[in-house]
Amino acid sequence: MRGKRTRLVTVLAASLALALTACGGGGGNQLGGGTNVTVDQNAQFEPGTKMADLKQAGTVRIGTKFDQPLFGLKGLDGKPQGFDVEIGKIIAGKLGIPADKIEWVEAPSKTREEVIEQGKVDMVVATYTINDARKQRISFAGPYYEAGQDIMVKSDNTQITGPESLRPTGAKVCSVIGSTPAEKIKQYVDESNLVLFDVYSKCADALRTGQVQAVTTDNVILLGLAEQSGGQFKLLEKPFTKEPYGIGIKKGDVKFCQFINQALTQANQDGSYAKAWQATAGKVATQTPALPQLDPCS
């Protein structure tokens, strides 16, 4: 099994090098990918609902991350690409709104609730873990994916073998302000050794320069960062949490939540969910996930 994984990583590293070469030559982000999403031109909604308002406006504002390889990464053309972006496009399509009418708003971890509460976005699709604390401020549709928290270190690091090894080794660990992983890692590391930035790309830079010895967040985010490192980083591949990703919306909008859940269900049934994965994160994590059981809207 280990030999197969090593060969896979070698192939992926070669693919990444080609992708980065393409970017350097003015091409798009090959790992970001993308699909052509069907737009429901005949979409009809109950007057006064969020769906009806968006359909009439002909545009939708979606918050996502701009620094998350494979899920939400801003390309050279200024547009984000990745699995979260594709999920946003699928929902917009069900509203009758084409991809070129989506306004993408950067939504890093620390501001996701704020941009929803302040009405700066209509929804947030941004590796957004559903939890009770966030439900106090906003509502979630989904989940549309389940990740797990893991740890990334330099490829030659043999001291850090899992979360339990962080405190004994005195490792400095990096995560992002306002993220679930930043809170959950506190049981494994002294707070004085926890380094927090606003985006994960800064954590990767800190790991590269030796300012920290580990980066922790959801495995799919780390997978993208590791692939971009050209072999400098590795995942421990020992996830120690379950992180259901949801779509954040204004608190209490049950009808909008139900609409989004229906859109996810239809995407799963018609194959567009699988295509979205295969065109983005599936270029590295080749096993297509199953759509998780959707939570009831409330």
TrEMBL record:
The UniProt entry, under Pfam families, shows: SBP_bac_3
InterPro entries hit by this protein: Bact_solute-bind_prot3 (IPR051455), Solute-binding_3/MltF_N (IPR001638)
Give the range the annotation lists for the signal sequence.
Answer: 1-24
Q: What processes in GO biological process is this protein linked to?
A: amino acid transport
One GO cellular component term, please give it: outer membrane-bounded periplasmic space
Keywords in alphabetical order, please: Signal, Transport
- Domain Solute-binding protein family 3/N-terminal: residue ranges: 59-284
Query: Which CDD domains does the annotation name?
Result: PBP2_GluB
What family is this protein classified in? Belongs to the bacterial solute-binding protein 3 family.
Tell me what this protein is called.
Answer: Glutamate transport system substrate-binding protein
State the organism of origin.
Saccharopolyspora phatthalungensis
